[in-house]
Specification:
Chain lengths: 654, 654
Amino acid sequence: METTTKTGQPFDRAHMEQLMKRRLFYTPSFEIYGGVKGLYDYGPPGCALQANIVEQWRKHFVLEEDMLEVDCTMLTPHEVLKTSGHVDKFADWMCKDPKTGDIFRADHLVEEVLQARLKGDKLARGENVEAEKEDPKKKKKKAKVENVKLEDSVVTEYEEILAKIDNYNGEELGGLMTKYNIKNPVTGGDLELPVAFNLMFQTSIGPSSNAPGFLRPETAQGQFLTFHKLLEFNNTSMPFASASIGKSFRNEISPRSGLLRVREFLMAEIEHFVDPEGGKKHPRFEEVKDVELELLNRETQLAGKTKVETTPIGKAVSSGLVDNETLGYFLARIQQFLLKIGVDKKKIRFRQHMANEMAHYAADCWDAELLTSYGWIECVGCADRSAYDLSVHAKKTGAPLIVRETRKEPLSIEEYQIDLDKKKFGPTFKKDGKAVESAIEALTQDMREKLSLDLKNDGKIIVDVAGVGDGKVEIPKELITIEKRTRVEHIREFVPNVIEPSFGIGRIFYALIEHLFWTRPDDVDRGVISFPPAVAPTKVLLVPLSTNADFRPLVQQMGRKLRALGISNRVDDSSASIGKRYARNDELGTPFGITVDFQSIKDNTFTLRDRDTTKQVRASDDEVCKAVVNMVNGTETWDDVVKRLPIFDGQEIE
Amino acid sequence: METTTKTGQPFDRAHMEQLMKRRLFYTPSFEIYGGVKGLYDYGPPGCALQANIVEQWRKHFVLEEDMLEVDCTMLTPHEVLKTSGHVDKFADWMCKDPKTGDIFRADHLVEEVLQARLKGDKLARGENVEAEKEDPKKKKKKAKVENVKLEDSVVTEYEEILAKIDNYNGEELGGLMTKYNIKNPVTGGDLELPVAFNLMFQTSIGPSSNAPGFLRPETAQGQFLTFHKLLEFNNTSMPFASASIGKSFRNEISPRSGLLRVREFLMAEIEHFVDPEGGKKHPRFEEVKDVELELLNRETQLAGKTKVETTPIGKAVSSGLVDNETLGYFLARIQQFLLKIGVDKKKIRFRQHMANEMAHYAADCWDAELLTSYGWIECVGCADRSAYDLSVHAKKTGAPLIVRETRKEPLSIEEYQIDLDKKKFGPTFKKDGKAVESAIEALTQDMREKLSLDLKNDGKIIVDVAGVGDGKVEIPKELITIEKRTRVEHIREFVPNVIEPSFGIGRIFYALIEHLFWTRPDDVDRGVISFPPAVAPTKVLLVPLSTNADFRPLVQQMGRKLRALGISNRVDDSSASIGKRYARNDELGTPFGITVDFQSIKDNTFTLRDRDTTKQVRASDDEVCKAVVNMVNGTETWDDVVKRLPIFDGQEIE
């Protein structure tokens, strides 16, 4: 997909990827062993960038809202993920070529083939089509673009299918493959129909082989399983949120798109627990209600369209488009976070999940998607998971994953209550007494009402008790009373609902770099990455004017001073020209440069350079450090600094 | 093992563990599902403590020494760990009771049984023995202590075995079991001999089943595999270190001892790459040479003793006890780190590995052990792994995991060189030409010397060439010259050696809490944890004197102010007494408390309380904040603060 950089040039992915690899932002894992698809290592700048994004996330969410951060294990026993539904449902559809053994992910295959056909159609119609770049080193499994014109109606059909490609299940994907004659794109061979492939990595815990487990596919389950402890830690006060930052794993069928679809990835997830009664209000919704989001709603997509509408979140919630305030609050906060770390506002949209995409229990779900050269990519999911997770785990284990709160007004409940004459009951039913008693206790209100009439009319009732006699037990009125009475309830018990903002840090990392990568017109071979100071891997480059030893003490002193202020810095005292040294660090996204020159030795002043404008100011060491600290903490911008410190445009140092 | 708290009281593990669980420092994972042995979750205070320890580690090592931090994947293909030796050797010895199916870790079993017998002997001799605490909830697999006196010589034998229990291989453990008649301690049944159990979790990567992989057992391998890229990133400058912080996994046979032996754990590992020539000097060794360490050397242990010697690291290196400066440098730096985060100096020792314990390639290896109620626990390993890892991976993959450096003085090498007459060579050997040529090129210098004499004497040589004729090929002197010549080498190539300090963060976390846990004589039911301010989960507790609403704005203002200074804080505005609120936070190790009272409303002064002394000072908000920041950053101590701010001993607020 053709996208443009922040300066409006066409984005050159090959250039950016080459920079990423050369400067060791990230690199395929196990490359010297031939690599493993979907696994990447982060080198020093990537590692620092990732840590800074996480740090900002922690500040923006965990600290700002007093969330309870937890760190749960990745190893997860089978039973937990069976209960959560992952063992049965966490799968993609794959289809196999029985001849070659090739395996395809069904939805991706359909998408790719139809896109190739649409492209072929455009070619046939003489329209402009982005040239396909071939990578001769890569074994191509891609669908070929052939110059074949399609019927207008077929074009419309294809476009509609593509707009809702995430909405098909395996059977439907199989139907599309048959209907549109989709084959192995390399050999043209027939494919088997899609079958489910579970995406969890399986292993075995302990020395005996009867304890199967998985690597977690999300950090959420660990948080749900400790809900009752977290609630107690929070002095049983609601609502509250837990949060977790850690790796999760998905055994992708066919990883592609670099960092965007990987098998091991860092997630940051919030589980906000809220009372389902009262419309899931959020106490701070007022603060964000005017935040405007680009929304792509469910209906638009089902109609085969992708038009977004700019909507203040307040309006989206009040109109019912976004299900509730808490969900809306987090959508706005997600956007604020993305903007804070440097994501391009024009490249964010929120896409609502379609019915089939969403888990059956979810009340509503929106993805924050970021525009990249691979198209719109889901980077943050924000789902209302309702009471599903807590309920299933509580049901399975009997654990009290509930909230008990004292009602402000006691609740009066009219209900049929049953009293048994225990003294007579035992001797009458002997060893069956317990079973009969349990069966009576389990009677619903409707049945109790009916039986109270039977009792009045017949002087006895007949109750179903499995395993006792013929399963029907007669109870005479001497043993039992059934009466309508009023019960006053002081305590309310409820299962909280969960709003879950879930961040794929690796995807955000990648999209962010695409958004911030550009080149200067006078040096198009070198990239610049305009990280905001707070997330930049290194904040300051220290450059002595030359390798002259006289500069060294000042460089060291400045390095120590900045380090003490918490500002990461690196020295480049190589013999390359200053311009070249700066350019090398523009590639790493280092926002500031401090030059030590002969003037510095005389009067302890230094030049401070801004990466994006390449403008410089000159000031004392204290002033320079203060300006850097302010810009990193966000209390000043470069524009502010330029206004108050003297511009330096002495010699063009090259 | 009986240990004492920092105030000299007996350490009460049950009390501490109960506190850990109640205040959610950590908790068994999946507890509502019955739990999985060896897996623990960290709750909010534990999560913060862990993050702070990691933060201090990153400052102390990565930032201070400009290490290259990387983040590599946990999923690791089989081939990598086959090459590293883990597939074949990363195992513990387990033995099975064929009747009950019980599985024991052999070394632990021998240890436990002999210890129980020694205890029984002491009882029989009427000596004082620590009472065995029984936990009726736990299924006991422990060896029973029976009142049986042993021969004096047997006692000595047992003690010697226990002192070197880590030094036995499977066969030897089997021998001990037979010799000392060690059975299933619960049933008394016979056990099978020990067999190796590989400790890696296995899984399968991708949709086909032919890509086996493991969860990494250490973070080191990923660092080795990117060595050449890191070297280039470092401008090919040596020495340098990479570092990595992340989870690793060991499928323990029978996890026990809480956080000390778990199946998933956070590691922080450094791989310091150093030129093996020149004695592995370290440029900063001078800075640490006077640091005194408690050393337990190999010979002492093999003699069945555990006596440590206090030795300055400079002396330990110069005497050859510690193999080299770089290893010694890191031992000292490890101790400095441990002290910085609050480990008790009296509870640190460095134990040298015995021969069998150490990998065959290692030059030397020392563990930093911390004393806990479970005994001395390995918390940091520091090994000289020599060139082993880089060599085996380079050999397997052909990747250039080497350093090439220009020699200061070119090196002249006398060697036998071979010239072939290529024009005649081809026609003579035809299709076998390549094979013969390769065989000649592979000849060693010794063989070349011998063959040069043959050539002179016989006018021909005979070379072994597998697969050509009968494997012997005759080459006449017309085709070949062998001469001794001088070659000048300008470039030196070498495989760096690796010094690896490897930190088990979870074990340090646990030992640290044991070292810092104590109780006040006047409130023995409540624990206090004296975390240094820098690692404390929360730095400040904010307490309004009462629930009076007038205090709220000041509390909020102080909270914001501290947060802006990067100081984490929590409010306790419950109706409990101030004393009780402070005591609750002593349990969390919160070092400072700030009280908002009526005086605060009048003049904006606040009391600042120190956790350990419970003393208070009173000052303006700015002064109080400044003191807290200084104490967290370590530029001031409470003693300093008390000297310059007025003591507050107004009403005893209870």
